[in-house]
Amino acid sequence: MTIPGPRTPAASAVAAPQPPVTAYGTGWQALPTRRPSVRAAWPIAAYLLGYPVWWALGLGGLSVVVLAVPMAVLLWRRRPIRAPKGFGLWALLLTGYLISALTLAETPDGTYGELAAGRVIGYLMRLAVYVSLLIMVLYLGNLTHDELPQRTLVRWLGVLFLTAVGGGLLGVFAPGFAFTSPLEMVLPPAIGGHPFVANLIHPTAAQIQHVLGHAAPRPEAPFEWSNAWGADVSVLVIWFVVGWWTYGGPYRRVVAVLALAAAAVPVVYSLNRGLWIGLGISAAYVMIRGARPLLAGAVAAVAAAAFLLSPLSTIVAQRLDNPQSNGIRAFTVATTIRVAATSPVIGYGNTRTAYGSHRTVTTGRSPWCTECGHPPLGSDGQLWLLMISQGFTGALLYVAFFAGAVRRYWADRTPIGKAGTLVMILVLLYMVVYDGLISALTLYLISFALLWRNATGASDLGEAR
């Protein structure tokens, strides 16, 4: 599918015969004739390589909204614009979100709160992210492989993994580290003081939570919150292994081993069961679909033995023995489904706050009891967020988009194809436990773009190191 651009005199001329495109290059050109240039891909480089700077400025995941502006300009200049198969589902999801604004002022039964600035701000921020991600995918897919080689993009994702590991270690060893960002300084209190906005613009190393029955830090730097850190790391580690081990030379492989060993510490101290399950699924996937399943199994066995013999195994056991969030999740999910059923087609545009909690039928959080209540409906997973904000229709479109990607790209047996398909599978798992906005959903769609680019052929063109 393409978006046509203006006709030029050359368009009416007889086109020269083009070499046939295969999954690994053109029919008679196995290697590029010139060194690749990634200057056209600078917005993606700015996002992935410059993420610590965005985080320090207070933008973090919101930087994708800022960078979507130059991406849109560059994309428009290179018309006609190609779009991947199945991307119409994402366009429908975005259209449905626009329509859901009609119900922003409604207060469904079992919830409380009136239409206020916070609800509108949250809606507009999510809308800006959805539009920006649409632009980002089209931008990535319309760059040539000379302009942005696949391996270069994968290695940039690996650099962000190293950043996440560094942020995780900071959260473990300096959990109180935090500062006021420049964006936080200039935003008016009415906007910057909103809890959703504050989480995005106030850089902190960790969240202090009572998951184990006592105060314990859960790493979150450089992302929005601890669950976002878990989701992001589980995706980034996949691309890190592909870019720095599978496609890496001796030096990159040494870095890969050291980085993965260091990552084990914040992964365990994150107390993130979703992350642990995701890593287990990834390991099983590699053993089943990997090029060397026996080697993968042996490596996994050695890693498991080392973990069980280390003090980190005690932390995992304590976390599994303290499932304190289960009751909260059960209440919010059940209430979300019940409320969403009252507006199943377009939802309510944003989250809502329910009466009571999993322990009481009285009103939840209040100024005199900030620890009472529970998270807003739709905050326990992207699927539930879509249900409350866009109804069952929005949730179905989201599932269809990523499930369709698994089906469409399953046959791609290249390392990038296998890795991207694994990420799509993890998206379908994480949607019930993680809110994808903002950084996680960005990484999901960059992974989708990698799959699309791989399927367009010439994946070896521009792969010069």
From TrEMBL:
Annotated keywords: Membrane, Transmembrane, Transmembrane helix
InterPro entries: WaaL-like
Record-annotated membrane-spanning stretches: 53-75, 87-105, 120-141, 153-179, 228-247, 254-271, 291-316, 328-349, 383-406, 427-452
Record PANTHER family: LIPOPOLYSACCHARIDE BIOSYNTHESIS PROTEIN PA4999-RELATED, TEICHURONIC ACID BIOSYNTHESIS PROTEIN TUAE
Name of the protein in question: O-antigen ligase family protein
Organism: Microbispora hainanensis
Organism ancestry: Bacteria, Bacillati, Actinomycetota, Actinomycetes, Streptosporangiales
